[in-house]
């Protein structure tokens, strides 16, 4: 196996890792102490709430013939904060910081530029350490002012506008589509936007959203109506999605005791409205809990706007666009989970396509070590020429320890 080149190289890598870890710990400790111990907020009568987690994530990637083995490591810290100023005004500010080491950092010359490319209108990312061995990178993915009074809600800044109904693929999620396989980012990305919501009942509202862009072709302006019809929650979505006009709908409900949900959106080129045809992205899914506590869920995707020229492996961990949610024209996902004990859960899933030769197997085990300490083992096994031709090590195994506070 090709592990590491020599002893000297391993020693150098270990030294760089621990130096970076020390700086990382100093930075995080200073930040937490300066915020939590600040007397100014208490004196001004501002209610504050802080939380977050620290995660250690190791990744082993192996070739099919077991001849190549690579290791990557991520030490991931997140701090979440909320400030209640009274009279309906609130501020939320969340930051994620990651210390990255391993094969990918050593062998990807442009990896720092990739991490530092902030997808929002404002650049809220910063690289603290950038060496051939180690990268320490931070990004603020929530930073918004909210005003909530009665049925009205107004949010301005980096936020998450979640309009999706289904779990894996979300054609209605015009602002914050996310990559399902990026399991280590549970909070999902935010966007620089202004959103307005009016709620006239628990299940009924009108939402307006504007994702800030330099031009209308770089912006999203959309409206959603949400209501109920018999035993179903429904929504209608429409607006301008970058270079397209879009119209869609979604629903959640039950067929007997099984959950039933779905979404679809139609996208049509705005500037060449009469000369070009549009395309549809649609997904339908369901879930069911058996009497023996086995939980089963699945989804089907029709993705007529997919880009056949894109690198499929690069798309796995990157947030897709609502009009191109997958690396193929069709997709399917099936997952089953079972609680072995109240503290231990196992699951197994498969994601694939009917129209391209690809399949991704996703077995997982999670165990709660204590109230705020969790351990997880997860694999992503990439099969099919579409995936294997783009990566030398398509078999991924992750180990994660998460401490929440």
UniProtKB/TrEMBL annotation:
The chain crosses the membrane at residues 12-36. It comes from Fodinibius salicampi. Keywords: Membrane, Transmembrane, Transmembrane helix. The lineage of its organism: Bacteria, Pseudomonadati, Balneolota, Balneolia, Balneolales. This is Alginate export domain-containing protein.
């Amino acid at each position: 196996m090709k592990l590491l080149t020599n002893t000297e190289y391993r020693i150098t890598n270990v030294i760089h890792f621990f130096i970076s870890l020390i700086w990382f710990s100093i930075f995080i400790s200073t930040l937490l102490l300066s915020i939590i111990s600040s007397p100014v907020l208490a004196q001004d009568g501002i209610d504050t709430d802080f939380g977050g987690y620290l995660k250690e994530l190791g990744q082993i990637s192996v070739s099919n013939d077991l001849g190549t083995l690579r290791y990557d490591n991520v030490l991931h810290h997140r701090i979440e904060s909320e400030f209640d100023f009274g009279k309906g005004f609130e501020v939320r500010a969340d930051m994620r910081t990651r210390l990255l080491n391993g094969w990918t950092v050593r062998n990807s010359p442009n990896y720092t530029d990739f991490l530092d490319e902030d997808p929002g209108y404002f650049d809220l990312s910063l690289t603290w350490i950038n060496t051939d061995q180690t990268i320490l990178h931070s990004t603020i993915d929530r930073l918004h002012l909210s005003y909530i009074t009665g049925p009205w809600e107004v949010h301005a800044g980096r936020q998450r506008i979640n309009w999706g109904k289904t779990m894996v693929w979300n054609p209605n999620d015009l602002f914050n589509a996310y990559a399902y396989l990026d399991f280590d980012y549970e909070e999902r990305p935010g966007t620089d936007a202004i959103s307005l919501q009016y709620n006239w009942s628990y299940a009924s509202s009108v939402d307006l959203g504007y994702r800030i862009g330099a031009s209308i072709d770089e912006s999203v302006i959309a409206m959603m109506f949400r209501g109920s019809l018999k035993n179903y929650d429904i929504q209608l979505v429409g607006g301008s999605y970058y270079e397209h006009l879009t119209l869609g709908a979604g629903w959640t409900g039950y067929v007997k005791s099984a959950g039933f949900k779905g979404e679809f959106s139609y996208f049509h080129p705005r500037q060449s409205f009469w000369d070009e045809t549009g395309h549809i992205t649609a997904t339908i899914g369901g879930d069911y809990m058996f009497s023996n506590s086995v939980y089963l869920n699945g989804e089907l995707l029709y993705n007529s706007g997919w880009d056949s020229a894109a690198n499929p492996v690069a798309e796995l961990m990157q947030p897709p666009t609502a009009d191109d949610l997958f690396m193929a024209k069709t997709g399917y996902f099936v997952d089953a989970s079972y609680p072995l004990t109240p503290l231990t859960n196992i699951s197994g899933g498969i994601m694939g396509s009917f129209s391209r030769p690809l399949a991704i197997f996703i077995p997982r085990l999670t165990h709660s070590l204590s109230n705020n300490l969790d351990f997880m083992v997860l694999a992503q096994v990439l099969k099919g020429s579409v995936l294997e031709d783009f990566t030398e090590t398509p078999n991924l195994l992750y180990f994660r320890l998460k401490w929440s506070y």
